[in-house]
Amino acid sequence: MVDLHCHILPGLDDGPATMEESAAMAESAIADGITHIVATPHSSDEYFFDFAHVRQLRDELQAKAGNRLKIVTGCDFHLNPENLEALRKDPRQYCINQRGAPGLLRAGDRRRADRRLRRRRSTRCPEGGW
Ligand SMILES: [Zn+2]
Q1: How many whole angstroms from 66 Cα to the centroid of ligand 1?
Q2: Minimal CA–CA distance to 94: which of 84, 85, 104?
Q3: CA 41 – ligand 1 centroid, Å
Q4: Ligand 1 mean position to 107 CA, how many Å?
């Protein structure tokens, strides 16, 4: 079973505050039969998305979970001008496992988002798998 949207990494947003809480969430997911999780910290006006830090936390949590749970990174991406500019420069950091789904998890006002996206050149993540 795959969880495509999980705020499991610590100290990044409104998810867990500590690595211990993250590890407990991972154990709970394993107990529920989840085999893969996409860690999706927010990138929004409220929460800054620091990809290097996200990867570091993913690696730490992956080490705790071992081979019982595959953790990859994605992003709960909110549409705002700063994010859209960052997306144009480096779309991979926001993609599932930096090569997964051709697209992003988007949140926010759908109509406003659609207008903003139409004004911008299409940006897609490279094709690939987990
Ligand atoms: Zn979310």
Answers
A1: 24
A2: 104
A3: 7
A4: 8
Question: Which is the CATH superfamily of the domain at 2-73+80-123?
Answer: Metal-dependent hydrolases (3.20.20.140)
Q: What are the residues whose beta carbon lies below 5 Å from ligand 1 (ion)?
A: 76
CA of 99 to the centre of ligand 1 (A): 20
Distance 44 CA to ligand 1 centre (A): 11
Query: From first to last of its 130 residues, what are the pLDDT tens digits of the chain?
Result: 999 999 999 999 999 999 999 999 999 999 999 999 999 999 999 999 999 999 999 999 999 999 999 999 999 999 899 999 998 899 899 998 887 554 555 655 555 555 555 554 445 555 554 5
Determine if the pTM surpasses 0.70.
yes
Kindly state the DSSP code that residue 126 receives in the 8-state scheme: P
Per-residue b or e along 19-32, where b marks 16 or more CB atoms closer than 10 Å to that residue's CB: eeebbebbeebeee
Cβ-based burial of 75 (10 A; exposed 0-12, middle 13-18, buried ≥19): buried
Ligand 1: centre distance to CA 5 (Å): 6
Spell out the domain ranges in the chain.
2-73+80-123
